[in-house]
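TA notes, week 10

Several of you asked for a full example with nothing omitted. So below is the full record: structure tokens for the whole chain, then the designed sequence directly under it. When grading your own attempts, check the secondary structure regions first.
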């Protein structure tokens, strides 16, 4: 699923693929499927997961299928990417929900419409 996610005044292209979970695990050392299944995950851990997955999805959109670019990513790449964003913008609940919507194969626009009702 491809979608643009608005983070502050920036529009960030994001691409979710079946391989997103593998790239996440390589970069952050944790299995994202197990993380999501963990019912004891704190709110902070859920936010961290969404932020990290947002990075993976954004980099996948940038790489446009270039596996070497994706395999070169690491935690330092994540920090460099975060340095480009305002913290308050990125941890906004709507932004995080939009990231998770893309990851789960849903349109982020449907999140906005549901919240307006």
């Amino acid at each position: 699923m491809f979608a643009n996610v608005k983070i502050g005044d920036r529009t960030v292209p994001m691409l979710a693929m079946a391989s997103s979970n593998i790239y996440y695990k390589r970069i952050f050392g944790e299995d994202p499927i197990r993380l999501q299944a963990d019912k004891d995950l704190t709110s902070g851990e859920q936010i961290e997961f969404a932020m990290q997955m947002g990075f993976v999805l954004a980099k996948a959109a940038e790489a446009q299928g270039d596996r070497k670019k994706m395999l070169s990513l690491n935690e330092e790449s994540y920090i460099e990417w975060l340095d480009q964003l305002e913290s308050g913008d990125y941890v906004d609940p709507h932004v995080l929900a939009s990231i998770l919507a893309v990851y789960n194969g849903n349109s982020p626009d449907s999140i906005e419409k549901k919240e307006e009702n």
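The chain has one domain: 2-116. Use that as a sanity check on your answer.
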